[in-house]
Amino acid sequence: MVRETVFQGGSGSGDEPPRRPPGGSPPGGPPPGSPPPGQPFNPDDDQFDEALRPKHLEQVIGQAKVVERIQVMLDATRKRGDTLGHLLLDGPPGIGKTTLATVIPRELGVELQIAAGPALSAPKDLLPYLTNASPGSVLFIDEIHRLPAAVEEFLYPAMEDFRIDIALGDGLNARTINMQLKPFTVIGATTRAGMLTAPMRDRFVYREHLDFYEVEDLVEIIRRNAVKLRTTITDTAAFEIARRSQGTPRKANNLLLRTRDVATLRDDKGEITTEVAAEALEMLEIDTFGLERQDRRYLETLMDIFGGGPAGLQAIAHSMSVPPDTLEDDIEPFLLRSGLIQRTPRGRVATDAAYRHVGRTPPRTPGNADDSDDEPPQKKLF
Ligand SMILES: Nc1ncnc2c1ncn2[C@@H]1O[C@H](COP(=O)(O)OP(=O)(O)O)[C@@H](O)[C@H]1O
Ligand SMILES: [Mg+2]
């Protein structure tokens, strides 16, 4: 069992005076394994996701409404000298959930512990996180929809009353002891808000949904990260990468890194020119819509094998030899959002826009008609 205390709030940034946790410093300081504070950024590091991650709320680009509401939560919590209410963040992968979950404790100057739903298989796995939670600290539980029921139930009183009930012995000797915890905050992240049980969802005072980003926000993220990577990029190149990033910062960062590789080879100064970006995107087989090979394979499978649908997720997944969860988490959200597929009670359907996108004529079949023929394509991102 790994308990990962990531950093002590206030340290590690160097650009802001450290703030004290509201309840005083926890004894012992950060445990071994914490990254040294103020570690310089190494552009050749593999941990780009970490390196490019905003450290403070003001560096978080886009999601203006969400950021504004979080700012209010933080200011009010600080002003009251209180513990932040539990916060649930949901949205597709790579959209900034972990980023916000790490920014918030840093802003509050409190400790952060990170746990992942699938790794918490029994209440005892959660126990050290709860008992180690310092006053006002944040426990980030990623993929919280994948917590087993027993762990979830163990978490309820901890979230509600900062108390845990531990069952000791069994049979006639069975008894329950209660243990009081320090007030702390759970930040839960999920790609599937719909899979969360109602009692779990109800334990969160704050719930925020992160949606796909506008192209202008991604352009800004790419520009800033190019500076962090000590490379230069033309405006057109930044725009080209942004509009093909499926509204997702993580994809924008990955494309930036891949184009930078091409730039290193092609350009004397390693500048990401418009030509370099075009070459890289072509090499990566990212089309003008931002679809990757796997996305197009999904659409082609739906059209070729299932006649455009409706087709069940399991059936599509089976045909593609891809786990259904991967399709539902990584591939479908953007296709849905951009109006290329629709989810109907009978299964997934490829829309006319999808046919046109892969260069085919939309079939005028009854299977397609009731679901998509009469509807205008949904709002396109790009
Ligand atoms: N609002 C944002 N502003 C700037 N960069 C962002 C933003 N959201 C995400 N990123 C970048 O995208 C990467 C992936 O985001 P992350 O928070 O890990 O996504 P999630 O946890 O939702 O899968 C981060 O490392 C960060 O570099
Ligand atoms: Mg994450």
Describe this entry's structure for a reader.
There is one protein chain. It contains 15 helices and 10 strands. By secondary structure, it is α/β, with parallel strands linked by helices. The chain folds into 3 domains: 52-209, 3-Layer(aba) Sandwich (Rossmann fold), CATH 3.40.50; 215-284, Helicase, Ruva Protein, domain 3, CATH 1.10.8; 293-358, Arc Repressor Mutant, subunit A (Orthogonal Bundle). A 6-stranded mixed beta sheet has the order 1-3-4-7-2-8, with helices on both faces. Helix 4 (123-132) runs parallel beside helix 5 (149-161) and helix 9 (249-266) packs across helix 10 (274-283). The radius of gyration is 23 Å and the shape is globular. The model is unreliable at 7-46 and 368-382 (pLDDT under 50). The structure holds adenosine-5'-diphosphate and magnesium ion (MG).
